[in-house]
Fold these 2 entries.
Entry 1:
Amino acid sequence: MGFYGDQVLPRFINMVCSTKTVRPLRERVCAGLHGRVVEIGFGSGLNIPFYPAGVTSVAAVEPADTGWKLAGKRVSGSPFPIDRTGLDGQALPLADHSCDAALSTYTLCTIPDVTAALAEIRRVLKPGAAFHFLDHGLAPDEPVRRGQHRLDPLQQRLFGGCHLTRPIADLVTEAGFTITDVDIFYEKGAPKIWGAASLGMAVSS
Ligand SMILES: C[S@@+](CC[C@H](N)C(=O)[O-])C[C@H]1O[C@@H](n2cnc3c(N)ncnc32)[C@H](O)[C@@H]1O
């Protein structure tokens, strides 16, 4: 990945993803998580403060060592165990039907093979268990979409493979989940070209 991807980008993500405006969204997406949770693209652990009391352990999946290091204090101060269980959301080292819930925030935009990652999440979830997601993606408005398509190649180069144009809710549905709740909106304080946020919950169908 090189110095930029290994050292600079995880610190930058830690900074831009921890703003005051994102925190209420993290709180919403984490509500209702319980038991053993797998979180893909764990990053620097910015969701830890929002995990509800019913969570008993977290299997953290994160390729970036720097992200995991930045998570250090939050991980050690957590009331439940958090293990770095894997490095790649596209191939989870977890048994079938071994998790009570799954979480992904701002990661479905980045994982190279998002379809493989969603299939893995379905595989490791217990039947009827919920996948909670928060991500940015394809905007609902055509003029914004045009700008997103233009900027997408540069965005991917600058931000570790992050896509602006993934239709997040559609991808979740196409992977075989049934979305039980989703809110699609432009994030306060973010430029529209960043896309619409999709905050939702889905169960394996
Ligand atoms: C924009 S960051 C979001 C981090 C964190 N989820 C958050 O909300 O702050 C995207 C994360 O996806 C991770 N990532 C990239 N490729 C991945 C993969 N194949 N499997 C799991 N995570 C991946 C990156 O290392 C990064 O931590």
Entry 2:
Amino acid sequence: MKNPYRPMLTTIEKITIENEARDLKTFRLAFSNGSEANGFRYRCGQFAELTVFGVGECPIGIASSPMEEGILEFTVKRYPDGLVTNALHNCRLGDSIGVRGPLGNSFPMERLEGSDIVVIGGGFAFTTLRSTIRYMLHETNRAKFGKLTLVCGARNPGELLYKDELKQWEARQDIETHITVDEGDEHWKGLQGFVPAILEQVAPSPEGAIALVCGPPIMLKYTFPVLTKLGFQPSEVVTSLEMRMKCGIGLCGRCNIGSKYICRDGPVFTYEELQALPPEL
Ligand SMILES: Cc1cc2nc3c(=O)[nH]c(=O)nc-3n(C[C@H](O)[C@H](O)[C@H](O)COP(=O)(O)OP(=O)(O)OC[C@H]3O[C@@H](n4cnc5c(N)ncnc54)[C@H](O)[C@@H]3O)c2cc1C
Ligand code: FES
């Protein structure tokens, strides 16, 4: 039987520095073993445990889209005192990284088909939403979804993730984008304001729509009431939790809230499911 704790070997193929503070990097990894590469079939919203050998491992959401055969990307925020995230940021092209996964449940892509989708993201939690947007915009998938609306933000223009991609999405006719920063600078010509406030101004219709929301806890706290005010039912709001984990496969008991293991039963939950959990978040 395959050991679920044994990471698969990958090599760093590309590193993109995402922000001015240089504490957000996207790593493109290539599997060393062809059959492991073929076996790594993931869905939008899943995560993997990334290992820096000799240091440790940590859970990171998959930022690439399952539609892009052979491409596997993760965007990692370096915590000043973070063991693994610092070690990852010190890695260079060609270094070996371990990958365990794909883990967790996923965004309910089949259930989303036929609906209008409102994607709401903030800060570096935008990673799995990027995967989802790329999936929905893919030429073989776009017709399966209704109107796509994106409201996303960051603290300032330099902190926006995937800047080139945001520009490409802004230029498209088949996704409506509202990109905002808490505080602009002399070059910023876009929206300014917190994500929940911009969402309230944009006021997407809840009719036949589902909202996908990922962001820092403070953004989620103010976004859920706005969605409720706009008329979205808690069952039509989907989010992803990023809490501390260890094994990532439902065995160690480190990530439970009530009877749910976030690593195994999540990290994706509807707002309705979250409301039914004990208030430990
Ligand atoms: C399902 C899931 C998906 C994730 N996706 C991403 C992602 O796409 N990109 C990304 O950069 N990060 C993501 N994270 C968070 C990431 O796992 C943590 O940043 C990482 O574990 C920190 O490891 P470390 O060894 O560097 O820090 P540690 O040495 O373990 O801790 C350093 C500091 O960070 C704090 N910390 C560590 N983990 C968390 C956490 N989960 N929540 C709050 N504080 C924490 C600690 O309290 C401590 O102060 C995800 C987490 C989960 C559970
Ligand atoms: S991290 Fe071990 S049970 Fe979830």
